Amino acid sequence: MYNMTIRLQADSDVCLYEQIYLHIKREIKEGKLLAGERLPSTRSLAEFLQIARSTVDTAYGQLLDEGYIEARPCRGYFVCSIEDMMEVSDEEESQTLQREPLSSISRTEAEEGISMLPGNREGAKRKKFDVDFSPYDIEMQGFPFDTWKRITKKILSEANSDLFARGEPQGDYELRQTLCRYLHSSRGVKCRPEQIIVGAGNDYLLMLLEKILGRHKIVAMENPTYLRSQKIFRSFAYQIKSVDMDEGGMKVDSLEEDGADVVYVMPSHQFPSGTIMPIGRRNELLKWAGKAAGRYIIEDDYDSEFRYHGRPIPALQSSDESGRVIYLGSFSKAIAPAIRVSFMVLPDVLLERYQRDCFFYSCTVSRIDQSILNEFIRDGYFERHLNKMRKIYRAKHAQLLACLEPFRGRFAITGENAGLHLLLTADSATEDWLVGAASDCGVKVYGLSQYRSDQSDVSKTVLLGFGALSGEQIAEGIRRLRVAWNI
Amino acid sequence: MYNMTIRLQADSDVCLYEQIYLHIKREIKEGKLLAGERLPSTRSLAEFLQIARSTVDTAYGQLLDEGYIEARPCRGYFVCSIEDMMEVSDEEESQTLQREPLSSISRTEAEEGISMLPGNREGAKRKKFDVDFSPYDIEMQGFPFDTWKRITKKILSEANSDLFARGEPQGDYELRQTLCRYLHSSRGVKCRPEQIIVGAGNDYLLMLLEKILGRHKIVAMENPTYLRSQKIFRSFAYQIKSVDMDEGGMKVDSLEEDGADVVYVMPSHQFPSGTIMPIGRRNELLKWAGKAAGRYIIEDDYDSEFRYHGRPIPALQSSDESGRVIYLGSFSKAIAPAIRVSFMVLPDVLLERYQRDCFFYSCTVSRIDQSILNEFIRDGYFERHLNKMRKIYRAKHAQLLACLEPFRGRFAITGENAGLHLLLTADSATEDWLVGAASDCGVKVYGLSQYRSDQSDVSKTVLLGFGALSGEQIAEGIRRLRVAWNI
C-alpha cells in the first residue's frame, strides 16, 4: 500500500489524530483494508497528509492498542487478521457460541494487560500515557517487602527436603486451615479446609472447575462483566448468557428462560460497574440455584477487601444453605498480581466430583510459596497489610472524589463505595470521545463498552482506576481531563 | 458386618496376608462386599481366623493402598465405592471412552503418590514400608539448598515492584531465553524463546494443550505408560489408544489404523519400561506425523538428564523438520518435585493457535520463582547440580546392579541404561507374588501391570526405583528381597 487519502477536517470537534484513527478503523471494519496489508509508514503518511508525524504516531498507537494493526520489526505496520482473532476452533464453531463484538475483543487485550502478540516481543508497541487510570493496577509501594523477604528467608532456612517434595493436590493442609480461618472471620465464608482447593491463579482454577462441572454448560454473566473470565468460559465452549444489571446487580428473572446452569457473579463489588449486590437480590439468586439440581453460582470475590462506606458485607457463600456457591478468591489485588495463589471453596457435591475426577492433577503452587503465604496470613501480617492498604486507598479515593467535584455538573459518579476504580457517566459526550480526548492529553481512561457483550446503546461511561496512582498523578490526571473535556 | 470366613491354606505358596488380601479384593470385585460396607476390625478378624493381628493389618494396608477400602477415623474400615471412582461424567459416558482396568486405577493413586481422599486427611492410612523402591522419588539430599536460598535472597533484595506485577502469559522472556539456550546445548532442541510456554507443572501444560489442540482427539500412548498423563487425557475425553512396544519402543505400524491424531511418547527414557527409542524408530514416528495435517507428537522428556551408558541422545524434537513435535520438560526430577515449573516448546502452527485461542490465560508461575530458576540455570548452578546428581545416581545405580547379581539366574534386568529405576522380570514368579512377598518383608516394589492398559498376560515384572534411597537402604532392601523371594 502506497498511501492513504484521508479527508481531514481541521475545524472539526474531533481532533486530527482521532480522525485518522477513526478512518483506518472504519476501513478495517468495512474490509477495505485487508488483513496483512501494510499501512504507510508514519513518516510517509504524515508527509502525504501534511501533518505532524506525532499525530500519525498517536493514531497508529491507538490502533495498535486496540489490536487493529500490528507492528512487525523493521517492516512496518500491518492490518491484523481480525477474523483470525475472533475465530473459534472448528468444533466450537458448530455450537451456539455468542461472539464478542469487535471492539470488545480487540480492546481487552490492551486493557487487561494482555499482550496481543505474546510470543512476539518486538511486535507489540504501545502508546505511553503520562497518567493511566488503570482499573487493574494496584499500589505496590505499600507491599511489605521486608516482611515477605524475612518470612521467605525463614522458611528456606528451616526448609528440609519435605518442603521440596510434591505436596497435596488440593494444597498444603496448613495453608487451607489458615485460609479457612481467614475466610470465616473476614468474609463469613463457612467451610472446612477439606473444601478448599489452592491453585496458581483464577484462570487455572476455572480450568479445573470445567473438569468438575463438565461440558456443555450455559453460564450467565453480568453485563458488563470481567472479560478475562468470559474468554475463559468461551474457551471451554460454554455458552455465555449476558444478563443485564440494575442497581441491585444481575437481574435474576431471565435466568430460568436462559436455561443457565451456572451463574458467575461478583456480589461484593461487581467489575466493572462497582455495584454491590443487596441481600434481597442475593436471596433471589440463591433461590434460583436451589430450584433445580446441578445449578451453581460462582462467586468471584476479587476485591472484597476494600470498602469505603458502610460495614463489610459477608460473601454470598455465607448465606448459602444448600451447597450451591463456589467461592473463588485470590491475592492478586490484596497482595500482588505476582502472588500466583488463588483458591476456591467447593460445595460438598462438587468436592466429591473433584475427588473422583480430578484428584490426579498436581497442585500448581509450590510448597515454598504456600508456606510463605501461610505464615504471612497466619501471623497477622496480611491483616496488617490490608489495614494499611485500606488507609492508602481510602486517601486516594477521597482525593479523586474531591478532584472530581467540578465534574459533577456534567457527569454522574457511580461505583464509588468500594474497590479501586469508579465510573464517570457523561450527560452528553460519548465514551469514544471521552477516551480519545483524554488520550490526546496523555491520559488513559477506560471505556465501559468494552466490558459489554452488546453495543446497543452508545456508551457515555468511562472507568477511572486509582489503585496504582500517586496523589500527584491523580491531581495531574484530573487536571488534564478538565482540559481535555473542557471542564 | 460381623465377621468374615476365609479359608486360609497354611501350606499354600501364597502367604497368609496375601490370601486375606486376595479374598477381600475378590469379594469386592464380585460385588459380594458392597460399597460402604464395614469390614471387621483387624483385631476381631485376627481372633476369628486365629492368626496374628499384624497379618490382617498388612492385608488391610494393601487394600487401603490400592483403594479398595478406606479407613474412617474412629469408625473402622469401609469398602470404597469402586463404581464411583470409575464413573466418568455423564457426557463423557456417552463417548467411546476406554476404561482402565480396576487394578490400574486403584493402584495408581497410591503409587504415583496421589492421595485417594485428597480432602480427607484422616481417611487415608497407608502401610509403612521399611524400604520403598519408589520409581517416583528423587534424592533431595543433593539439592543445593544454600545456593537456592542465596539466589532467592538476592532476587528478593533486588526486587522492585515490577517483580510482583503480572508477568507475560508465556513466562518471563529472560527465563525463556535461558531455557532455550539450555535446551539447545543439552538436548539439541531447536527453538526460539517465543515458542516456549512456562507453566506450573506438566498437568497444567497438558490442560493448556487441550485448549490448543481442540477436542475429540485420539491419543496413542505407549503400553505400558505413565498413568498420570493417561488420566489427564481421559479427563479431556480424548480417546486413548494403547500401542504395544518392542525393544525399540512404540510400534509405529498401528498408528494409521488407530486413527491417532496425537502420539505421546518418552523417547529418551520411556516410563516405566526404560526403553530408549533408537533413531530408526524416531524417524518412523516423525514420518507418520508428517503424513497428514494435524498430527502431532508430544515428547515428554521427563528424566533425560540421567544416563549411565553411551552418549547423550538428543531429544526427538531436534530431528523434527516439519514442526510436529511438542516438547515437554520439567524440573521435577532434575531439581525437585516442589519446583512447580514445567515448560513446553510449541511448533509454529500450534504457537499461532495458542496466541489466538489461549493468550488470555495468565502465567501460572510467579515471577519471583521464574527469576530464581532463571538465575539458577543461567549462572551454571543447574549444570553443576546435574553433574553432582549424575555422580550420586550413578553410584546408587552401580550398587543396585551389584546387589542384584545373585538375582540374574532367575530374573532378567532391563531398562538399566538410564533414569532412576530398573525392571526385574522373573522366570516363573508372578508380579502379584513378587509384590506381596516383598511387602511381607517390609519392602515395597512396584508391579509393571498397573501401567498397562490391558491385563492379557500375567505380569512377571516389577520396578525398582533407587532415586531416593541411601546405599544402606538399597543394601537392606535387596537383602530382604532375597529372603522374600528365596534367592
Return the average pLDDT of chain A rounded to an integer.
Answer: 84
Q: List how many beta strands of chain A DSSP finds.
A: 16
Query: Biggest interface and its residues per chain?
Result: A-B, 80 and 80 residues
Structural class of chain A: alpha/beta
The strand line-up of the biggest sheet of chain A is: 4-11-10-9-8-5-6-7
What does the oligomeric state look like here? homodimer
Strand content of chain A: 5-15%
Report on this model:
- The structure is a homodimer of 487-residue chains.
- By secondary structure, the first copy, chain A, is an alpha/beta fold.
- Chain A has helices at residues 16-29, 42-49, 53-65, 82-86, 90-93, 102-111, 145-158, 173-187, 202-213, 227-235, 254-258, 279-290, 348-357, 367-378, 381-403, 431-440, 471-484; strands at residues 69-72, 76-79, 131-132, 196-199, 218-223, 239-246, 249-250, 262-265, 296-300, 325-330, 342-345, 411-414, 421-426, 443-444, 446-447, 461-465.
- Chain A has an eight-stranded mixed sheet with strand order 4-11-10-9-8-5-6-7. Chain A has a four-stranded antiparallel sheet with strand order 12-13-16-15, covered by helices on one side.
- In chain A, strand 8, helix 12 and strand 9 form a beta-alpha-beta unit.
- In chain A, helix 15 (381-403) runs parallel beside helix 17.
- The first copy, chain A, is globular, with a radius of gyration of 24 Å.
- At the A-B interface, helix 7, helix 9, helix 10, helix 13 and helix 14 of A face helix 5, helix 7, helix 9, helix 10 and helix 13 of B.
